[in-house]
């Protein structure tokens, strides 16, 4: 299973309801081996917190309450 799949599984099973109630629109970096997670107002804050805690491991960042961390482009009529 990939890092992203593992992190998404941890998010869905353990973190989603707790984080969406209190931290919607923030970012969470999840390190799947330890199942540790790190919050940030910005993507970079969460990512760097995870990197500082586990410099030799990969983590995956999710925007809390959204399907994607970033939205690129715009809708035009």
Give a nutshell description of this structure.
This protein has helices at 3-22, 43-53; strands at residues 27-31, 36-40, 60-63. It is α+β, with helices and mostly antiparallel strands. The chain is globular, with a radius of gyration of 13 Å.
Task: Count every helix, treating DSSP H or I runs of 4 or more residues as helices.
Answer: 2
Indicate the mean pLDDT.
Answer: 93
Total number of strands: 3
Please give the largest β-sheet: 3 strands, antiparallel
Strand content range: 15-25%
Our measurement of the CA-to-CA distance between the termini, rounded to an integer number of angstroms, reads 40 Å
What characteristic shape results from the CA principal axes? globular
Number of domains: 1
Helix/sheet category: alpha+beta
Helix content bin:
40-55%
* Order of strands, widest sheet: 2-1-3
Please mark out the parts with pLDDT under 50 across 5 or more consecutive residues, or reply none. Answer: none
Cα Rg: 13 Å
- Along the chain, the helix and strand elements come as HEEHE
């Amino acid at each position: 299973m990939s890092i992203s799949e593992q992190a998404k599984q941890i998010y869905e099973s353990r973190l989603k309801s707790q984080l969406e109630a209190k931290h919607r629109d923030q970012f969470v970096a999840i390190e799947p081996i330890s199942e540790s997670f790190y919050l940030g107002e910005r993507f970079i804050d969460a990512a760097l917190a995870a990197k500082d805690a586990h410099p030799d491991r990969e983590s995956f960042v999710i925007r809390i309450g959204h399907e994607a961390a970033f939205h690129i482009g715009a809708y035009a009529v």
